[in-house]
Amino acid sequence: MDLLPQFLANGLVIGSFYALSALGLTLILGLMRVVNFAHGELYMLGGVLGWWVTTALGLDFLTGLALVALVMGVFGWLVDRVLIERIRGQGEEPGILLTIGLSIFLANTALLVVGTAPLKVEGPVSSGPVFLGPIVVTKIRLFAVAVCAALIVAAYLLIQKTRLGRAMRATFQDPMAAQLAGIKTANVYACTFALGTVIASLAGMLLGSIYSAQVSVGGLVSMKAFVVVILGGMGSFAGAIVGGLVLGVAEALWGGYVATGWVDIIGFVIVILTLVFRPYGLFSKRAERA
Amino acid sequence: MQFERNAILVALLAAGLLPLAVHDQYLLHVAIMVLFYAVLATSLNLVVGYVGEFSLGHTAFLGTGAYAAALLSTQLGWPMWATIPAAGVLAAAMGLLIGSITLRLQGPFFVIVTLSFAEVLRLVADNWVAFTNGPMGIAGVPQPAWLAQAGNLATKQFFFYLAWGVLAVSLYLAYRFVYSNAGRAAVAVRENRYVAQSIGIRPFRYAMLAFVLGAFLAGMAGGFYAHYISFVGPEVFRFAFMVSMIIMVLIGGKGTLVGPLIGALLVTFLEEYLREAKELRLSLFGLAVMAIVLFLPRGLMGFLTTRREMRTPPYALSRAPRGAAPADWRSQIRCALGRGGAILSGVSGAWRLGKPK
């Protein structure tokens, strides 16, 4: 029983990572109605790029993070303008297929370029332990949680306080009305996709410094992010955060008390149960269109 | 309808004659895989093309069938002619279970939950070592005893005809479903759920029928795979199978019976041809999927039928004299629905198609 605080702490740490990974997905899904199956691959690209800029270019972690954000932002913007724009307004299925194709392409091209070996992103702080009462956390994890929180707050401020954020929310509520009010919705969509891409890739780089960046990780990340998004409700900012924390804690407790081999099953069981009993998530404000 | 039936019959006949002409073992193996994938693509097409929902969890049924056949034959000693149908039935039962949950959902929810189910099954196969032997898989799934003396070529020929038989059964069932009242009702639901509901078609029921039939076919394919490869591991649930199936259905054209066959033929040969460059192949597949979605959204068959429809103006149908032979129902529905305010004629058209029994 004395391990409970430790499990909870581990769960909350992992949960905040899940929340950040899922945030980009929920933004894209909520605003653009695009189910982005390439989300995990964007995360992976962030990790691989992060590894490249910190080792090959020799930048320090935070500069590297900024560079990755810039590159991936441009990439996300281009993906939207070149690919997703063509299928906008055709319902969900083309989007699903397109992003599945994109994810296959990205994952395997990355595999061709950097291979299967795990790539360790050089972290900014040591991985030594910190003792907080009965709990042990490594320094780098605390650092990562802090960056996670900062990024989440930054994204929140971007959406709530800036002109672009207002345009995003207007488009979310009613694309047609937003367009009539003079908002360039195509631009807003591209920016949203870029924002989602940036958040996903930063999560990838951040976690690459704790675990390691791996080319094959995309599918798992996508699945976890979907679990979080479904649990929290599609397009819900708070839902993504709470969903991430819930999933992290649930996995940590399950892994601690029941069986480690079955940890990944938790997420899928949560998804199935959520969709059966509360199909629009815990926090969805509005009913889904029929 | 006639065209599809004739095309299928010709394709099956040609395939059946193939082993008489080809005695190369490798080519026969490729041909067997074409047949195997054709069954899978046909079964996925029933869900994707006729229910109109996108399932990413079809490997669940393939895997269930493969494990069922492997376990039944190694643990209980069932002969092969019993395990393959049993694999289909068990997969259909799995389809009933999964479908009863997932078919209440639509769009992205459906996609993710079907994928979740496949992943859950993969994790079970990976972790429940006592039952499935975990990551080691089940080796030595028996093949009929007389094949041991018959030599390699005869073995390949035997399995070719077995796969051919499974495919023939699958196509027969799929054909009977698609051109039955139930199949037409499913199409009506796919094209417009609300019009279909308004004339008394229950979407859930027909979606379920197609889903379970698809699961049954995929399960039989899995059973065949278990005996042919003689090994079953958690890889049968892997996403690569799913990717191949999706591409086959999409390239060929979903919602047609011939399309998936063309897709299976093309993709299997392409896969073999590009085997040297494994990762490059998958990269190219990714590009192919994107290109199809952008430029050929209805697949090769859809491309052909669109051209044919363009030559015969679609509205000619509604001007046809009463009592004329019933025209192609799909274009009838489409032209009825396509015109604004013509819901009524859509209802009457769909009523004629999906009259409740």
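qc> Chain B touches chain A through 36 residues (CB under 8 Å).
qc> done
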